[in-house]
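Interim report, section 4.2 (structural modelling).
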Amino acid sequence: MSDGIPTDGPDIAVVGAGFAGLYMLHRLRGLGFEALAYEAGADVGGTWYWNRYPGARCDIESMQYSYSFDEELQQEWRWSERFAAQPEILAYARHVADRFDLRRDIRFDTRVEAAAFDEARDRWDVTLSGGARIRPRVLVMATGCLSAAREPAIPGLASFAGPTYHTGAWPEAGVDFAGLRVGVIGTGSSGIQAIPVIAGEAAHLTVFQRTPNYSIPAGNAPLDPAHEQAWKGDYAARRATARTTKSGTIYDFSPHGALSVDEAARRREYAARWSAGGANFMHAFNDLAVDEAANETAASFVRERIAEIVDDPQVADALSPRDYPIGTKRICLDTRYFETFNRPNVTLVDLRRDPIARIEPDGIRTAERLHACDALVLATGFDAMTGALLAVDLRGRDGETLRDKWSAGPRNHLGLMPAGFPNLFTITGPGSPSVLSNVIVSIEQHVDWIAECLAAMRERGAATIESDRAAEDAWVEHVGAVAAGTLYPRAASWYMGANVPGKPRVFMPYIGGVGAYRQQCDRVAAAGYEGFRFGPATLSAAPRRAAS
Ligand code: NA7
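Predicted structure of the assembly:
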């Protein structure tokens, strides 16, 4: 302590110990930086630590949803299913933490509450839960895109007499629904995964649906050993290919437009992909995201399947999405979701026809009647992409808050750094492919870019790096322009901030594609970090190396 302000803490602070924070820590350590990660949870895993709801499962195939940075790791780890369930993904995160000895540099049960850039010292003044303060030179936000769970503003929610669970903050000990009347609010990915499992446990399940969702059968199954071997025999090359694709995932991308083939051929294509399962369905034709008529051919195919599966035509009708293009809200993958509505112990309440009036101690009262419940499940989603960042009171130069800066929507350069916030990096931040991609691929790309940037900074003896406002303006405009060329802004989705009352309606992720985005980031770095500025070192702000 030289000036009355605590100087304890690392040179680089990483916020979060999910997949982004773990790999960031590993890379920084490899480069000889002194870094610590601060994690609000009691263990590693991030989103896979908190989202323990029944049925929680990844919607990207296991062989692709994993780290690629270490050949031995990817060869030795064995997934049991085509799509891994939450406990297995959490076990993988734990394995990575142990294998690379990362835990010794993670402070668990510690939330980063505030961080202000101290311009006199070129350091961040960070307040942790409990009041401790640290002064790292660099702050890396590895806080996740879907980590700020959102409770709906339904009158009377707090008056409910039974337990209420949010899918995004599920109790570690699990929940026993046997013999209970359960109400689930929300039919996004989380609700669609949880509903069939809860229906199998509960005495009765009432599903409260505001907007029906498009969902494709996952086709989940035990992982085929031949498939695993094919991947492992060629892992590095396949990973390299995935990095060049649009979504960071190898799919069977069709080179044809939906209307360039006749109806019979189109149906054959959709049917084959529907029965094979997975999000590959959305790549049946190459224009589903941009052409309304093409999109409608896929949307109507899904509605036909719903009508076929669900016995009661009125229920099937209520479950059929009609007012937004398929894929413009994240496509859901399910295991017997629509079939669940044929069970005698499941009731669908269509809130568009019969809206919720309020929650009462005994259940949920809609315009028509009281639906008695013993337990409630809120599958109501997240303040996505910006929520976890804005939950930290972040202040940059001149005391500008990130909340003010982003009051009309997120602004940064390349999705990596908001101008006016030196030495603050965001992994998979808004303005990058993040939630539109296989997020582990995007995490690895951002972590590598940030690590190399910090090494370049050290090489130059610079104390700070920050993005130029002009570069930021150009990037934000580009992100918006690319989105405007697609059907995505047509849906009231969390991509658009539409699920949070008062949140600006801006398409937040970058839809230009993982491969193209990586090229832009690499080009910027190769051009000496074009659009970013390095600041000179002062005596008190000289970069430190770890004492090794
Ligand atoms: P989502 O996709 O945001 O879904 C939330 C659901 O909750 C959605 O059906 C909402 O209906 C519903 N919701 C939210 N607020 C209310 C209120 N007040 N009343 C009734 N219904 C409500 O979150 P998920 O957790 O399912 O998935 C998020 C992502 O995690 C997912 O895309 C994957 O990437 C993983 P709405 O559509 O707003 O009418």
